[in-house]
Design goal:
123 residues; 3-stranded antiparallel beta sheet
Length: 123
């Protein structure tokens, strides 16, 4: 076996360690509630965050009961850019309440896809 493989592992480990040392102060000083991608949070690279559709902006007051629907919207072309499958299923964006790891109410989003035809299988 060549000794090149252990040298590559050592080099990769050194690069990983240097990267972690470089970004650790930024991670440690970040407000845990100012998550990149959330409204008003700064990005890790300090580049401006692009505008997002209004649907994804959470309300000022988030319902405390997990699973409470905040809003829904038809998700046009979400899975099919030509919208040829709209005859077979309905896709909707949904925002609903959830909890973070500390028990704080948060808004989360997803896509719900439901068929337009009734189930014909057993059960």
């Amino acid at each position: 076996m060549s000794s090149a493989l252990p040298r590559r592992r050592t080099a990769a480990t050194a690069v990983l360690a240097a990267t972690l040392v470089a970004i650790a102060p930024a991670i440690a000083s970040a407000d845990e509630h100012a998550i990149p991608g959330t409204a008003g949070a700064s990005t890790l690279s300090d580049s401006p965050e692009p505008a997002r559709p209004a649907f994804y902006e959470p309300p000022a007051q988030i319902p405390s009961t997990p699973g409470t629907i905040i809003r829904t919207q038809k998700a046009d072309n979400v899975l099919d850019p030509l919208d040829s499958s709209s005859l077979t299923f309905d896709a909707r964006r949904v925002m609903y309440s959830s909890k973070d790891r500390e028990g704080n109410s948060i808004a989360v989003t997803g896509v719900m896809v439901s068929p337009k035809t009734p189930w014909i299988g057993p059960g």
